Amino acid sequence: MARPLILVVVIMLVACTASAPVADMPSPTAVVPTTTPSTSPTSTTAPTVAAPTAALPTVTAVPATAVPVVTYRGALVGRDANGAYTLGDPAAPLTLTDYSDFL
User: Fold this and answer.
1) Alpha-carbon gap, residue 54 to 51, rounded angstroms
2) How many Å apart are CA 67 and CA 84, to the nearest integer?
3) 76 pairs with which residues across the strands?
4) For residues 46 and 62, what is the distance between their CA atoms, to the nearest angstrom?
5) What is the DSSP string of 63-95?
6) What are the beta bridge partners of residue 59?
7) Any residues with CB less than 8 A from the CB of 71 and at least 6 apart, and which?
8) Which of 8, 20, 90, 93 is the most buried (most CB within 10 A)?
9) pLDDT tens, 57-99?
10) Distance between CA 42 and CA 6 in Å, rounded?
11) How many angstroms separate the CA atoms of 89 and 77, rounded?
C-alpha cells in the first residue's frame, strides 16, 4: 500500500514543478542591399472618369400573393400574436400550453 502511495505523491510533485528553461533563439539579422534602387518618374495626370450612362431601375408594384397554409398531418401550424408556436386552430375553445426548454 505504501509503494503506490509514494509513487502517486512523486508523480504529483513532478507534475507541479517548473518546466525546463527555453533556450533563447538568435534574432535574425537584417540584410543590407548592396545597390541603390533607381527611382522612376511618376505620371501626374489623373485618369478621366466617364459619366454614368446607365439608367436607374424603376420600382414597380408587385401584387400580394396569398400566404401558403402550412400543415402538419392536417393541423395548421403557425405563430400566435405573442410569438408562440401553435399547432392546430388558434381560435380553438381549449388551449394547451407547453412550457419546455426544447422549443
Assistant:
1) 9
2) 19
3) 71
4) 45
5) PPPPPPPPEETTEEEEE-TTS-EEES-TT-S--
6) none
7) 77
8) 90
9) 788 877 776 666 777 888 888 888 888 888 888 778 888 888 8
10) 79
11) 8
